[in-house]
Specification:
Layout lengths: L1 H23 L2 H5 L7 H10 L2 E7 L5 E7 L6 E7 L20 E5 L13 H16 L4 E10 L3 H10 L5 E4 L5 H8 L5 H4 L6 H5 L6 E6 L7 H10 L4 E6 L11 H15 L1
């Protein structure tokens, strides 16, 4: 019996160790999945003539690459789109939920598409501020600038409004924090001690008093709705929340309510 207990304990420790290695040992690879941009795709976008290719140099000698979609009439208000952790920035342009008379900036994170460098929490934060500043200095853009973040992109979007004078914020399936989401997934692990890139969105929300639109799918299994609601509840500005039934983390855009909510929110900011 003693041998059985010892053997079970050894296997238990091995299982725990392997699980911990999987969770903590490959954090960057698991979070920053990355996405490629082919030359054919880039040329397709150039040929459309409706987007402007952007290269933005960072203070640490990296280069961000992406696209600015401008409306026919400028100056115009603008959305900065921050995508999910496996999203190449131009992917959202094909099915954009944003009004056609708004400028739309789609930039790839470091290590995504043709952007150089390695992604991290601090890099996403500082690059988000840099992109805001670039738009704020552009004569074709009004002072109405709205960061919009989906999933992982909710972190740089919220941080932009935490540090800059934005007109409002759109958060789609946001974290409360990545720490809490990982604790939900791995309740037996010491997540808080070892996690990199915690993305404390709900803590920053407590300091933001500009308008917020939150959008969630009630069937989201990646970032469960209660995590997103914690951020919405913490937000200090006027908050509108759209909860879409029967849609999950990666299917929200299929619902007409998704684009309708975003359009209505942005129209209110124009007034």
């Amino acid at each position: 019996m003693k041998l059985i207990l010892v053997t079970a304990g050894v296997f238990g420790l091995l299982y725990f160790g392997l699980s911990a290695l999987q969770v903590f040992g490959n954090q960057d690879a698991a979070l920053f999945i990355g996405a490629e941009l082919s030359e054919d795709r880039a040329q397709e976008l150039r040929d459309r003539g409706e987007v402007e290719e952007w290269y933005v140099d960072t203070s640490d000698d990296e280069t961000l690459h992406g696209w600015l979609k401008l409306p026919e009439e400028t100056p115009a208000p603008a959305v900065i789109h921050f995508g999910g952790n496996a999203e190449e920035a131009s992917m959202t342009m094909d099915n954009s939920p944003y009004p056609e008379d708004w400028a739309q900036l789609y930039m790839n994170y470091r290590g995504y598409g043709w952007s150089t460098g390695d992604p991290s929490q601090e890099a996403l934060y500082e690059d988000a501020r840099l992109l805001f500043e670039q738009l704020a200095e552009d004569e074709r853009i009004t002072d109405v600038i709205v960061p919009a973040g989906r999933s992982m992109g909710s972190a740089p979007a919220a941080y932009t409004s935490y540090r800059e004078d934005t007109a409002g914020t759109i958060l789609i399936s946001p974290y409360d924090s990545r720490t809490r989401v990982q604790e939900h997934r791995h309740p037996w692990m010491p997540v808080r001690t070892f996690i990199d890139h915690p993305f404390p969105v709900s803590e920053q929300a407590e300091e933001i008093d500009t308008p917020l639109l939150g959008v969630i799918g009630l069937e989201d299994q990646v970032i469960p709705p209660e995590h997103s609601r914690a951020t919405f509840d913490a937000w200090q500005g006027e908050t509108a929340v759209t909860e879409i039934p029967n849609e999950g983390h990666n299917t929200l855009h299929r619902s007409s309510e998704y684009e309708e909510a975003i359009t209505a929110f942005l129209r209110e900011l124009e007034e």
